[in-house]
Amino acid sequence: MLDELIAGLRGSRGLAAKRDIAAALAALGIADPSAAVPVGDDCAALPLTDDCGDGHLLFAIEGFLNEFVARDPWFAGWCGVMVNVSDIAAMGGRALAVVDALWSRDPQHMQPVLDGMAAAARAFGVPVVGGHSNARAAQEQLSVAIVGRAKKLLTSFDARPGDALLVAVDLRGAYREPFPHWNAATTAPPPRLRGDLELLPQLAEAGLCRAAKDISQAGVLGTALMLLECSGAGATLDVRRVPRPPQAPLARWLLHTFPSYGYLLAVPPAQVAEVIARFEARDLACAAVGRCDRSRQLRLREHGEERVAWDFAAQALTGCGPAAAPHMEERRHA
Fold first, then answer.
1. What digits encode the pLDDT tens for the residues 155-210?
2. Gyration radius from the chain CA atoms
3. Do 318 and 200 fall into the same domain?
4. Model pTM greater than 0.70?
5. In a 3-state reduction of DSSP, which class is residue 100?
6. What residue numbers bound the domain in which 306 lies?
7. Cβ neighbours, 10 Å, residue 48
8. In which element (H, E) is residue 126 found?
């Protein structure tokens, strides 16, 4: 199974999309790991001035595959809000508002996308405050942007050797076929959705979590690669410890599944029990699945066997992380 997972990881469509980030960063010239808040996280984080209070303003945007918008327009609209509020939470923040850009062939095709966005905005308690629409386009296209605020920031750049890797996920759902979305949100009570998201800023403000990343289209393993690259770290991850619904095949869950609520966390060992307890108190699955180290490799373990899945010394992914682990330490202690 390890060889299958590693081959699937290196060849996955979700990870290929993440590798495309490197070209954009190079063209824009914005990949600076020594910056106060480096680019490459779930959100851009802008330090607030004294006049605006403490913390960071968070800013993110998501674009959606045309195929997805065409085949499941209502859920695409819902996801426009949901994935953005999840990105804000992953940074230790609370969402404030979203705007959208929506193109469609006509008003009739536009309506279900708008209905999905409106339903999610009500459920998550995050208003849609504006945007752009065009009902005379060749096909349906959607992107949604969000702003939020974090009192204490979580980033992908602060995992340290010795930190435990935790996966927290809502397993109370099902795949929304034929796409890889694990939907545990659309039928959940809105107070539960909001309370579950609130866990992330609470963990940040309590100092219980060092780094976090929203589990994305790249799956658990691809998300782990992005977190480790940004932090200049490595890790060993036990694939059988990852919380997983019994009906989900292991490879699909680890490589391709995009959960409606799922996070990868780097947590100091002394805080692991408390963090797991907070998720479990809300009936969310959470488990320690591995440990960070200085290797700058992702190694997968199963039933006592171990394989190197990725070596950052040989190959970058997004190009967002430091060139070597010592640079990570220098930046942190500067």
1. 999 999 999 999 999 999 999 999 999 999 999 999 999 999 999 999 999 999 99
2. 19
3. yes
4. yes
5. strand
6. 1-31+155-334
7. 15
8. none
